[in-house]
Structure formats: C-alpha cells, structure tokens
Amino acid sequence: MGAARKIKQEYLLEGLDCANCAAKIENGVSKVKGVDNCSVNFATKTISFDVEEQQHSEVSGNAKKVITKLEPGIDVRDKNQASKSKVFLLEGLDCANCAAKVEKHVGKMDGVASSNVDFVSKKLTVELNTADDLSETIKQTVTRLEPHIHPKEMGANQSRGHDHDDGHGHDHSHEGGIKPLITRLVIGSIISIIPFLGDFIPGVEIALFAIGYLIIGGDIVWRAIRNISRGQVFDEHFLMSIATIGAFLIGEYPEGIAVMLFFQVGELFQSIAVNRSRNSISELMDIRPDYANLQVDGETKTVSPEEVKVGDYIVVKPGEKVPLDGKVVKGNSLVDTSALTGESLPRDVEAGSDVLSGFINKNGVITVEVTKPFADSTVSKILELVQNASGRKAPTEKFITKFARYYTPVVVIIAALVALIPPLVVPGATFSEWIYRALIFLVISCPCALVVSIPLGFFGGIGGAAKQGILVKGANYLEALNSVKYAVFDKTGTLTKGVFQVTHVEPSSNVTKDELLEYAAYAEVHSNHPIATSILNAYEKQVNEAHVLNYNEVSGHGIEVEVNGKQILAGNSKLMVKENIEDVTPSKVGTVVHVAVDHVYAGHIIISDEIKDDAIKAIKELKALGIKKTVMLTGDSKAVATEVSEALQLDEFYAELLPHEKVEMMEKIDEQKLAGEKSIFVGDGINDTPVLARADIGVAMGGLGSDAAIEAADVVIMTDEPSRLADGIRKARYTRKIVWQNISLALGIKAIVLLLGVLGLATMWEAIISDVGVTLLAVLNSMRVLRNK
Fold this sequence. Notes:
789 residues, alpha+beta, Alpha-Beta Plaits, Calcium-transporting ATPase, cytoplasmic transduction domain A, seven-stranded mixed β-sheet, six-stranded antiparallel β-sheet, translocase, P-type zinc transporter activity, Cation_Transport_ATPase_IB, ATPase_P-typ_TM_dom_sf
C-alpha cells in the first residue's frame, strides 16, 4: 500500500505583528499530531504545513485551535478563501464628503470586509470576504448614493496606469458639465439683477428672485431633497439649501441668491484646483513608457510594453524612455535615472549593464534584452506603489474624516439653538435677526477645506518623496516618519558598499607597495574568490599567466606559486606559521592576506567592505533631526563592527548576530521607546526581511529593482545613499507642517466667522466667501509640498 497523499494547508494570520509570536505559533503547530513541515512566514503573515489528505479536516482544525490558544488576538483565515480585492474608478468624484459617504456605505455591505476611497486618485478599493462577485451590486450602491458618480471596475493593467484627467471637468453636482453650468449661472444672475433695475410689484420681484435662485441652485436643492429621502441629511447640499431657503423666508432674497451663486462658483474653482493638483502629482510621476521598439526578424516595430516578452530584444533610441527592465546587449550610452532615483548625474551603461524601465536614454542607441515582463517591471511597481499609497490613510486623515462626520451635525444643532434661544430670552431680540445669524453658521460649517486639502497634502508628500527616490508605501508611514527616534541599521549593503576592496597595503622594508600588489596578483590570478578579485582589481594591470608556474592551493591556508623563478606565498597567518615565516600583526581591521617571497616576509594586504561615501553624512543628519539613538546590527565580527561604528560615530552596535538574534535585538531596542516614539530599521530588504517587518517602519536600502525589498519594506530608498533617509524624514515633517497649516487655517477662519456671525458683525456674504476662499487656499497650500526638497 502506497504512502498517504499529503496536501499543503495555508492560513493567513491576520493581526500577527510580533516575530516572537510567529516563532511561538510555528513551534506550537509543529507539535500537532499529523502536521509536517510547519513554517510561519512573518513577513507575509502566513503559516503553511503538510497534512495527510484523509486527516486534513481534523488536523487543520486542531492547528487552528492551537494558534487561537497561543495568540487569541490573531484571526486565522484560510488563504484560499481570503478576501479578494476589487478596485473601481469613481468617475465624477469631486467631493470629499461624497467620498466619505461612499466609503462608509459600501463598507457596510454584506460580503464586504473593508472599503476605502482614495479621494485623490478617485479609486474605491473593496476587500471581499465572499466568493460572490459583488461588482455590479457595488456599482449600483455607489450610483444610488451619488448619481453623478460613474463607477468603473479597473483591471490589473488599468490600476497600474494613470488616471488621465483634463483638469477642467466639474462633475460634482453638475452632471451636465462645465459649459451648461456657466450658462445657468449667467442666466440666473441676470434674472436676479432685474429687480434692482426698476420698480416692480412685490409679487413680481419675489418671482424674479425665485426664478433666478432655481436656475442657479435648483440642482443643489434637488440633490438635498434626494439625499434626505435616503436618510443622508448632513451634507453640503443640505446646508446650502437650508441656509439659502432660510434667507428667502426672512426676506433676504439677494443674499440667498448670492450665497448659492458663490457656492456654485466656489465648487467649480475647487474642482478645477483639485483636478490640477491631481494632474501635478501624476505629471510628477510621469515615468510610464508609452511604447517599446521591438526587434522582430531583423526589423523594428513599435508595440505596447505589455506585448513584449522576457527574452525579447528592444531598441532604445536617444531621448526615449527604457520601457522594460533588461540587460544591455549592444551599444553604450548615458541614461538619466532621476525619475526613479532622484540622482541628477547620468549613468554610463554598456553591454552587460542592467537598465530599468523609467530610465531615459540620453545619447547612444542601445539594444536591451528584456528580463522582466512589464507587469513586474520597476516602473510598474513604482507607479502602483505611489498611486495606491494614499489609500493607506494617515491617523490625521482618519481623525479629520471622523471629525467632519460629527462637526457638521454639531454646528447645525448650534445654529438651531442660536435661532431659537436668544429671541426667547434676550429682550428686544427678533427671530428674523437670530435666524439670519444662525444661517451664517450653516454656510460656514461645510468642512470641505479639511477633507479635500489634507489627503492632497499627504499624496503630494508621497509624490514629492518618490521624485527624490524615496518610495513611501502609505500616508500612514509618511506620518509615522515624523515620530522616529531610534534608527537601526544593517551594516553590509546599507552603511557599507557590500563589495570587497583593497583598503590598505602594508609592505615590509624590502619591497614597495606596487611590488607587493604585483606578487599578490600573480598568486591570486587563478582564483575566483572575491578576495582574489579585489586584489586583481587593485593591481589594475594585466597579469601574464604564462609566468605563473607550479600553482598550488593549500586548503584553508592560501596559495603557493612560482613566478619568474621566485616562490610566492599568499594567504592567512596559518600559512605563514606553517612555512615558519614570521609575519606582522596588522594595525588595520579587515581580511588579511600575508605575502612572502622566497620565504621572506614581504608584507600584508587588508581587504574590507568599504563604508559608503555618504554614510557619515547620513548619521550626522539624522542626529541633527533629533534621532535619539543610532544603532548598527551586523553578523560581522566585533573588530570590523567596532571600526565601522567608530568611523560613523554610531551610538551603539551589536555584532556577530544571526538573523533571529537581530529580531530579538530590535525588540529590546523597542522596549526603550517612550509613548508615541517610533523605531526604524534600515536593511537590504532581502536578508533582513524579519527585522524589516518587526520595526515600526522598515526601510529597504538600495532596493532599486529588488522585488524582495519592495515587498518587505514600508519605505524603499531607491539608491544606495543612506542620507536619503534624512531627506524622507524632512519630507514627512514638511508634509505634516502643511497639513496642520491647513487644519489651523480652516478651523481658525471658520471660528472667527462663526463668532462674528453670532455677534452680528458678519453677513452671509463673508461666510460663503470665507468658506470658498479657505478651501482654495488650503488646496493651493497642499501643493507646496511637491516643490519642497
């Protein structure tokens, strides 16, 4: 009888945010009878194990019980039945309140796990926890809530592309478009002016004002009525309708019309400003290639980048964007990498060089062999990250959205009290006077300035950071960078170059430096070890292999050769001891290669991993920004770690650590934090995945083109420059400054106008102008974050 068939079971561990918890779960589930090959991937929050098919149900159930017992806060979900994501483009979305309304109601639908509307990119992302396809139901729900919004489901390619917008549409509340709207406003204004041009009987005068009002704002009133019938009362349509109809009821006809007119004009300008802001961000990241020159049977034809396959050859001419990731097989040129890395200096490429999609070819013609399909190319990943980043909302955004939800009803209640209480308790007060003051409350209470400008501010910050070569995967991470107080670094590839180089040549008295290097180069010429390569690179001359005789590699010791009649030994100190040659203890730290010629000690060469050019600058800038402690975690020796730490003036270092020990050390560092402080870990994104996931903010250094880096980290520094981390923190702080300027500006002006309105010192004219004006100012202020370096 054959062995029982085994199947792989995978679960998502929602809520898993502790590496020790992951290890605990893996250990616990491994002990469940019937479980084999149990593994927990902390980065992807998944557990997988093998189980016999016949025992699948029982064993899997027992495994889930163990997980729940060990970590009650973790939600265990079958990966095969996990939530599906759908993305919809909400064409016509120009109102932040409408966005919040759609997000709230879609999120409450059966079968929907979560709903998120990104107002800036007009995208609705829905996570489904059902196998049913709810696309049509979701579309119908959105259309029922906001008839002027036209939801369109987006596929994988669409979600990666740009959402082109001409910047001139004004769909919100104006289904007919901008020209009919302007025509209505002009006609309505002319009719409203007629009563001022002559004497009319009261009935005709009121009728003219009413006709003008309905032409200008009839659609707003209709929208308010329609929303009230659905139980959606407190929105800007309701506020404007009540305020202006109230003005009519107390005989303030011109002001009622003026408020509605200014509201419509303000909404129009706001829409244009928002769309232009969106376009500014889109243009900032305009790195998507439009076509590729594909070589087919000796000819070149223009095709879409999506049509090109791995292994195909493409030609990139001067001035064109490199459309896909690949390797240069012919030609040489300079490429502009600034769109991806923020580097101003062009880079030389030649046959054998790797190039990435988004680079711009400057002068020569190059032929490139494609190594990745367009969907997996660097430019696709970057665009997807940046465009979807604002979907991960910052705490400030979430607070303002929640604040706006309660702010408007509270103001309406206060307005009702202002209208009713003073006429009843204040001698001489009239209802008409206090109702008028209450109407000012309604006009100024619209929270558009906040809910529009703040998402734009964060999105602009993310776009501006991307232009500097810093990919931030969410507004929440951008805001979290403000609170970083502990910066923890990996060494190799992060603070050092990760490439072995000859850093010191120490000859004895009987030879020169050049002679010592020459002896070592001849000894190492047949070796492909990185140490041998670094010596040959340092020698920089051609080695004539014909002169090398009797090559002998002494395992664990070094190399023995004969060159031009001289016996040369090159290796570690054990080789010198073995041959009874007295060597010298090096004064420098690194890998040491001792050299002897005819059994006489000739000197030693130090080979080490070189510190990156701007690593010292990076640490100084971080300390200047108020970082409390800079720490290095490395698996390298204590001597090497000490030298690097002293050169960079780090506060602490921990050496000779295994990957799991780095996680444990990160957790100890986290215990030092005060409330509200954040830690950041900077690594290469491949070997340091567990630590990247464990830190409050994981940063992949030198992650350009690295799938593992982009997947594991919260922030990706697209160059090998540690100083970009300080740039990212400065960008985060400037973004926060802009956001809080907008909050202070909006709430401050509204508070002043509300107070003046209660005191009878402001009219509805000031209220509507200040409301529209502060929104436009806040939107324009948000765009400053794009220009800040």
